[in-house]
Design brief:
The complex is a heterodimer of chains A (284) and B (259). Chain A is built from 13 helices and no strands. With 284 residues, chain A is mainly α. In chain A, helix 4 runs antiparallel to helix 5 and helix 12 (222-247) runs antiparallel to helix 13 (251-279). By secondary structure, chain B is α/β, with parallel strands linked by helices. Chain B has a domain at 70-151: Rossmann fold (3-Layer(aba) Sandwich). Chain B is built from eight helices and eleven strands. Chain B has helices at 45-53, 88-93, 107-119, 135-148, 165-180, 215-218, 221-228, 246-258; strands spanning 5-16, 19-30, 34-38, 60-65, 71-74, 153-157, 184-189, 201-206, 208-213, 232-237, 240-245. Chain B has a six-stranded mixed beta sheet, sandwiched between helices. In chain B, helix 3 crosses helix 4 (135-148). The longest helix of chain B is centred in the middle third of the chain and has 16 residues, at 165-180. The relative contact order of chain B is 0.16. The chains are: A mainly alpha (284), B alpha/beta (259). Chains A and B meet through helix 8, helix 9 and helix 12 of A and helix 2 of B.
Chain lengths: 284, 259
């Protein structure tokens, strides 16, 4: 019995694992929280695009020897705001414009790392995430963004709800919709920035979409979605990270697979009610 | 007695990109008005409402509103995402987003919201998801949201579009009651007989204002043809004009000859 318990707690003996699981759990909760807006606004393609854009910033800051959070942060927030404006103004096809802007940024990142970086290792770490590189600064950064997001969303709850549900009437009723959207894109960019090192560019959009979709199947209330989704995100991240140690698989992939398993179970258990609720979500 | 001016559009033109949707219109809404805007699709009805609401700006002329005018807007129900996870109560209190910031609904807000819902026949439905309501109830939830803002002017975009006859009657009675209580109303509609003919004032719009007056003055074959670009006949039934599609009457005559 003692051996079994000792075996189960083995990963927690390593500092790198503890750092990784803390960041992953907070990241899961944070992505779950912002994922509610991503899913209800039908913006999952923006989450996907933003992570690709931030990759470009991360590569550029690595090559230019600029602090990751500063370089990729400025790049990511700027991309987020630009993407938000393109999507809102509908000047050109939003999907196409976002596709071009973000994949160009991604391609630039790849090219820069190929040309100047220690190519293969750093590319893999950014694409698929790595728990080995998680430092105390990452824990501080993800916690700070999580606290900031919670404070902003609680303080401006109704404005966020109104602007998400009915932006036109919200605008007429005095809500500064453009400002709310810019704020949301800024938070989304920051979230991707601080979680990317653990989850990786390629899988982060799944962490934005899966917990919120599961929460949507479980409830018909926006307010309840806002706490159910972070819990699901945190549980899948913690469980996935923990299992990855024993399965010897990529942490980010195991996290997403855990989330997907939860999705399948909830989809089966909630039956027609859950399926009806989720059928109205766009771009999933 | 002529009421005070709530909104005045003077020589107003509005455009999308470089295409003019409304050309140099002069139009006034006064306190106590109950106005219907009729016209074909693309005639500028929604644009006019949006210009009044301030969500688009005129490219020429101007819109002047009474200072601090409180307006409530009821959009077309077809534009609503009925799958969105919100309850009736959450929808109603949304309009106080600038004052009520936190998720919690205050006691005063709850009392006000329940009063508005009761007033619109939606008592006891506050915790229902919006999709669980009937067509008439859904329409009234959005009227309730607009009324929760305590508007002096209620703006409705196609309030009877896509609803059945019973719901249309409910909406019409509700609006008449609100008007009796002192709320000024402007709405757009395609529904000439079911809604427009019952209103005290009608405006026929097709980029420009073709006519403005009572239904008897406005719903004439000449004005209707100029507005809709198709021949229409007007019958008087019980003192009220009834519009008959000219082409439809022609087809009916041909069909009757076949019989």
């Amino acid at each position: 019995m003692i051996h079994v318990v000792a075996g189960l707690t083995t990963p927690f003996r390593y500092q790198f694992f503890n750092n990784g699981i803390i960041v992953a759990t907070i990241a899961g909760a944070l992505c779950g929280l912002l994922g509610v807006f991503v899913v209800l606004r039908g913006m999952s393609y923006i989450g996907h695009g933003l992570s690709h854009a931030v990759f470009g910033g991360a590569a550029a800051s690595a090559v230019m020897n600029i602090n990751y959070f500063v370089g990729a942060g400025v790049w990511g927030v700027a991309s987020g705001v630009i993407i938000g404006r393109i999507a809102r103004r509908r000047l050109i096809g939003a999907d196409a414009a976002i596709g071009v802007v973000t994949t160009a940024s991604f391609a630039l990142g790849l090219a820069l790392l190929n040309r100047y970086g220690q190519a293969k290792k750093s590319i893999e770490a950014v694409l698929f995430g790595s728990v080995l590189g998680v430092k105390t600064i990452d824990i501080i950064a993800v916690s700070a963004v999580a606290i900031l997001s919670v404070v902003i969303i609680v303080a401006l709850y109704r404005a966020f709800l109104f602007a998400t549900f009915d932006p036109e009437v919200a605008e007429v009723s005095g809500v500064r919709v453009a400002w709310i959207e810019a704020l949301l894109m800024g938070l989304l960019s920051l979230t991707i920035l601080v979680t990317m090192r653990v989850i990786g560019t390629l899988l982060i959009s799944a962490l934005l979409v899966i917990p919120a979709s599961v929460a949507r199947m479980l409830t018909n209330s926006f307010a309840r979605m806002l706490w159910i989704s972070p819990i699901i995100g945190a549980v899948s991240a913690f469980t996935g990270m923990y299992l990855s140690y024993f399965l010897d698989t990529s942490a980010s992939a195991t996290i997403i697979l855990t989330g997907t398993l939860m999705f399948i179970v909830v989809y089966a258990v909630t039956g027609i009610r859950g399926r009806t609720r989720i059928s109205g979500l766009h771009h999933i | 007695m002529i009421g005070e001016v709530l909104v005045e559009c003077a020589h107003m033109s509005c455009a999308y990109n470089s295409t003019l949707a409304i050309k140099k219109i002069d139009f006034t809404i006064r306190k106590g008005d109950f106005v219907g805007i009729v016209g074909p699709s693309g005639s500028g009805k929604t644009t006019l409402l949006k210009a009044i609401l301030g969500s688009i700006s005129p490219v020429e002329g101007h819109v002047t509103k009474k200072p601090h005018l409180r307006m409530g807007y009821v959009p077309q129900v077809e534009t609503v995402d009925w799958n969105f996870p919100v309850t009736v109560l959450e929808v109603v209190v949304m309009t106080r987003s600038s004052t009520g910031r936190l998720p919690r609904v205050t006691k005063d807000e709850l009392a006000d919201a329940l009063l508005v819902l009761e007033r619109l026949g939606l008592g006891g439905l506050e915790n229902r998801h919006i999709r669980e309501l009937s067509g008439g109830q859904q329409q009234r939830v959005f009227v309730a949201r607009a009324l929760f803002h305590r508007p002096e002017l209620l703006v409705l975009d196609e309030p009877t579009s896509g609803v059945d006859v019973r719901t249309r009657h409910e909406v019409l009675h509700l609006l008449a009651d609100l008007h009796d209580e002192g709320v000024s109303i402007i709405l757009s509609t395609h529904d000439l007989n079911g809604l427009a003919a019952h209103l005290p004032r009608l405006v026929c719009l097709n980029s420009e204002i073709i006519a403005d007056g009572s239904p008897v003055e406005v719903l004439t074959p000449e004005v209707l043809e100029q507005t809709f670009g198709a021949p229409m006949e007007v019958l008087i039934h019980g003192g009220m004009p009834v519009v008959v599609d000219g082409v439809g009457a022609d087809i009916a005559e041909r069909m009757s000859r076949l019989g």
